Amino acid sequence: MSNAAWGPLAALIGEWEGEGGLDTAFSHSKEKVLQTPYLEKVSMKPFGPVDNGSQHLYGLDYKTAMWRDDEENPFHTEVGYWLWDGATGEVLRGFVVPRGITVLAGGTAASDATDYTLRAELGGSQYSISENQYLTKHASTVSYTVTIAIGDGTWSYDETTMLKMDEFPEPFAHTDHNTLRRVG
User: Which of 129, 125, 142 shows the shortest CA–CA distance to 103?
Assistant: First the structure.
C-alpha cells in the first residue's frame, strides 16, 4: 500500500528532531511567565486501516518528548494517534499528557494539504478536552489549537492552549512552537 492512504499525514511518517522549540508558559517556581527554549524528539509510525463500519481510518502512532537545555528527563511528553479519514477529509489528533489531560483535536484538510489546523474545546461535542479534578479547579484547559505546516524534510507546529488559571483573571495563552527535521 502506498503512503497515499495516510493523506496529509503521510509526510509526518518517520523519526523527527527539533532544536528550536519555544515554550511560553507560567512558571510556578519563578511565579512569572517564561519563554523557554527546548529540544524535541518525535516518532510517528503508520498503521491502518482501522475500520468503524464503513469508515476507514489510517493513522500514526506517535510519541514525543521535550527537554530544556541539558536536562536528563523531559519536562513534557505525549503519546497518542494522528488519524486520517480520506472519505471526509477529517484529520484527528488524540493524545494524553501525563498531567491528567486527554485531547481529541480535529479539523479538515485536502489529502495533499501541507498546512492545516486542528482544534478542541473543553466540553466540545466532537473535538474535546478532558482533565483531572485538580486541573479543572486550578489550571483548566479551555481550548487547544494547533497549526501544522509541512516543508521539504521538515514540519512545524504552532500550538496555543488557552488556560483558566488561578494566577490570572483572564484565560492565559500557553504557546509552543517548533520546526522538526527528519532524522529517520
Answer: 129
Which class for 122: exposed (0-12), middle (13-18), buried (19 or more C-beta within 10 A)? middle
* Burial annotation 142-179 (CB, 10 A radius, 16+ → b, else e): ebbbbbbebeeeebbbebbbbbbbeeeeeebebbbbbb
For residue range 19-50, list pLDDT tens digits in order.
999 999 999 889 999 999 999 999 999 999 99
Sorted by where each starts, the structural domains of the chain and their CATH numbers stand as 3-182 (2.40.128.20)
Residue corresponding to grid cell 463500519? 53
12, 153 Cβ separation under 8 angstroms: no
Determine the distance from the C-alpha atom of residue 115 to the mean position of all C-alpha atoms in its chain, rounded to a whole number: 14
Distance separating alpha carbons of residues 49 and 133, to the nearest angstrom = 35
Spatial distance between the Cα atoms of 142 and 164, rounded to a whole number of angstroms: 7
pLDDT in tens, 94-151: 999 999 999 999 999 999 999 999 999 999 999 999 999 999 999 999 999 999 999 9
The rounded Cα 182 to chain-centroid distance in angstroms is 17
Torsion, Cα 110 112 114 118, to 10 degrees, reads: 30
